[in-house]
């Protein structure tokens, strides 16, 4: 296997193979975390051992969308099949007419989109995830038309789609957003009456190639290096007629994974990982085989779990260069990070290594290679246990501090002003105490789990369906590391 963990190659005849489980203890069969369940954690606890990292959620979502570009089949390995987001994306592809073979045990998915006969995916599934919106690019590029619902996903900010719309228009698409309006006649007591229009329901984006033949190469500068808009425009441009130049694009590893997949399907994408992409459109792409790389955000979350519990654990597979910002911050705090081999990291924050306590540090989230916004909530949980105060500035999303209220219920001292939080640490680690909490989004939810691991007593977390969107087997993996964490069906009062 190539040094980098993501590889793709043209598809040879194959059969779905038996699984090679990395950790015989941790079951490959994932039991999906459901909305009506709660997690009960008893703390404080220390962790030890090794944790295997699943395939990347965010890479999988855009690679699955990209299969819509390919004639004949694509085989994806190491897909986090147990995530509800993955299942929603598969339902979106099926609703378009794609044929899907799914092997949960060995994390393999075979997708054939030759039978796609619709350009309007199931709205209900679209509303569940943000990544579903990415299909607008490949549908437009291959089928010349797309009607997609406005995306769902975590409620962490405005999250408009203006960059997608303007980018697709720059590639020769006619795009409009339509809402369903309800008009009401309201008699007003005084002079005259007024008509008030009420928007009822999510909008849809209707797009088709303006020339009726297909997309055309063009150039577009993104005002902000949006990951989703970059990935969607890359997919659209890979089958446009002519050359496309996209500038100020996202440089996230997931963008590089997609470029590798597209190039192995016969596309010509240059510059992935830099802030400019040059794409020579091709009239046809073919299916390929691809290995989904490990989830850098899951790996980062477990590194933070080791730090917050002052433990020593090893994590693999992980690509250290994908997490260099976090590694630097944890070292500043006093953690010892060791690279054991090509794709294994050992994180140690055990008291022997850390004098009195871990030191706080300041964080400002920004696009890759900056500090990942997806690790901001669990990092804040850690900072509530470090000595000294820390400033956390969320600069990517405008409403991603929802977890603060829940952490305060555990006794954390945090002050918020706009998108900046001042976190007052502690000289001694375990001043948090257990409480009843509610997860409101994916990464905010996992921050509560990490805080629950060190809070005195019992912490109960509801709304954990959010966590199951992005973490496979989180509770089982933590149990194998020694955590006292149980999943149970929530009583009606807890929902
Ligand atoms: C991707 O979301 C990830 N999701 C997010 O992970 C991640 O937080 C984010 O990138 C940033 O790294 C997936 O890949 C499925 P953006 P995306 O477009 O593409 C603004 C998780 O927890 N913007 O880079 O939606 C937007 O409002 C999730 O796994 C526009 O203004 O993120 C935001 O402020 C959460 N106009 C900023 O860009 C647009 O048209 C970054 O968003 C598009 C985006």
Automatic annotation (TrEMBL):
It comes from Citrus sinensis (Sweet orange). This is EPSP synthase domain-containing protein. The lineage of its organism: Eukaryota, Viridiplantae, Streptophyta, Embryophyta, Tracheophyta.
């Amino acid at each position: 296997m190539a040094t980098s963990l993501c590889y793709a190659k043209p598809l040879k005849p194959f059969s779905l193979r038996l699984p090679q489980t990395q950790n015989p203890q941790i079951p490959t069969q994932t039991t999906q975390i459901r909305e009506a369940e709660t997690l009960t954690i008893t703390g404080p606890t220390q962790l030890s051992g090794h944790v295997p990292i699943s395939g990347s959620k965010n890479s999988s979502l855009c690679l699955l969308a990209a299969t819509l570009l390919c004639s004949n089949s694509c085989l994806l390995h190491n897909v986090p099949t147990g995530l509800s987001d993955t299942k929603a994306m598969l339902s979106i592809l099926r609703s378009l007419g794609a044929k899907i073979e799914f092997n949960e045990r060995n994390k393999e998915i075979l997708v054939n989109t030759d039978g796609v006969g619709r350009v309007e995916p199931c709205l209900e599934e679209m509303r569940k995830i943000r990544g579903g919106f990415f299909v607008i690019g490949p549908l437009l590029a291959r089928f010349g038309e797309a009607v997609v619902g406005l995306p769902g996903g975590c409620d962490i900010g405005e999250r408009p789609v203006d960059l997608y719309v303007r980018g697709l228009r720059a590639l020769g698409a006619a795009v409009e957003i339509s809402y369903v309006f309800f008009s009401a006649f309201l008699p007003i007591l005084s002079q005259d009456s007024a008509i008030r229009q009420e928007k009822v329901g999510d909008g849809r984006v209707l797009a088709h190639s303006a020339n009726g033949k297909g997309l055309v190469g063009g150039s577009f500068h993104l005002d902000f290096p949006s990951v989703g808009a970059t990935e969607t425009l890359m997919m659209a441009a890979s089958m446009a007629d002519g050359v496309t130049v996209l500038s100020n694009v996202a440089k996230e590893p997931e963008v590089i994974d997609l470029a590798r997949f597209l190039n192995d399907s016969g596309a010509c994408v240059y510059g992935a990982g830099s802030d400019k992409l040059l794409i020579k459109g091709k009239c046809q792409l073919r299916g390929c085989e691809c290995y989904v790389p490990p989830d850098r955000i899951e790996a980062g979350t477990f590194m933070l779990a080791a730090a917050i519990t002052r433990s020593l654990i090893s994590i693999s597979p992980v690509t250290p260069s994908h997490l260099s910002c976090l590694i630097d911050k944890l070292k500043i705090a006093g953690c010892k990070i060791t690279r054991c081999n090509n794709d294994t990291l050992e994180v140690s924050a055990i008291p022997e290594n850390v004098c009195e306590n871990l030191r706080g540090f300041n964080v400002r989230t920004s696009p890759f290679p900056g500090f990942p916004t997806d690790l901001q909530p669990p990092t804040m949980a850690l900072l509530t246990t470090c000595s000294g105060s820390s400033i956390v500035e969320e600069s990517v999303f405008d409403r991603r501090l929802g977890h603060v209220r829940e952490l305060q219920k555990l006794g954390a001292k945090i002050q918020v002003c706009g998108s900046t939080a001042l976190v007052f640490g502690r000289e001694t680690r375990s001043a948090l105490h257990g409480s009843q909490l509610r997860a409101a989004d994916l990464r905010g939810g996992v921050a509560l789990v990490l805080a629950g691991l060190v809070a005195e007593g019992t912490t109960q977390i509801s709304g954990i369906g959010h966590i199951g969107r992005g973490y496979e087997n989180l509770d089982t993996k933590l149990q194998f590391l020694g955590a006292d964490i149980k999943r149970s069906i929530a009583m009606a009062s807890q929902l």
